[in-house]
From TrEMBL:
It comes from Amycolatopsis eburnea. This is Cyclase family protein. Residues 1-27 form the signal peptide. One of its GO terms (molecular function) is arylformamidase activity. Pfam families: Cyclase. Keywords: Signal. InterPro entries: KFase/CYL, KFase_sf, TAT_signal. One of its GO terms (biological process) is L-tryptophan catabolic process to kynurenine.
Amino acid sequence: MPMRRRVLAAGLAGVFGAALSGRTAEAATPPVRLDQLNLVNLSHVNDPATTNVFPGDPAFELETIATIPDDGYYLQFVREGEHTGTHWGAPGHFNTGEPLADEMDPADLFRPAVKIDVRAKAAHDPDYAVTIDDLKAWERRYGRIPDESVVVLWTGWDAKWGTPAFPNTDANGVLHQPGFSIPAVKWLIDTGRLGRRGGTGTDTFSPDVGTDETYTVSKLVYRRHRISLEILANLKELPTTGAWVLAGGPINRRGAGSTATIFGVLPPGVTAG
């Protein structure tokens, strides 16, 4: 079995065993049938008519280049940036010398996930930056964030997709979207919660607050083998805790990440929402 498949198989075994038992992947766990897993789609449909493109990124185009009546098959030509629509980003997207898409392992893209609901605060303040106190309050209610997790912010921006309210730019072209504060991300990193191969997730363009054009949060997250899942959809279906996330998509040579179909993977006993 090729090394990459062995890594993924080992990761799957540890994932489902730990999810069922609450113990570490090294502990003995009962087998899990794969047909007992539930999947939820966390990706928007890639459609030029509804896709909000990050300012400065190339336009997204779909062109029909073959039809069944004329050619015997149907085919579209796709032109877009690697981070158009729902996508995942590789560490090298922001940090020189860090791994790019073709240097990541399958297990880097299959991680435990927690969801932090900040919709109320984001509705009140579109520039809201999640704090360490927010994270600690979440843990008091739901337990410690597992090490090497993807910490997903549910800001409510997924409901704005395809409208001008999603980028929420002002008269000067500045984005106004919620995200993580710099101290909060440093705390997640320093305490091991993001670890070597965890990351962040969000239903906005970026884990950074939209007004921060230094991308400081992204530069911190995108190190080692950590990833960022961005422009997530349907977050109401992702459980607050107990699920995993799986990021797919083409692996481009020296890619900064990939437009992706991202799934929430729910083990038996873990319910959506």
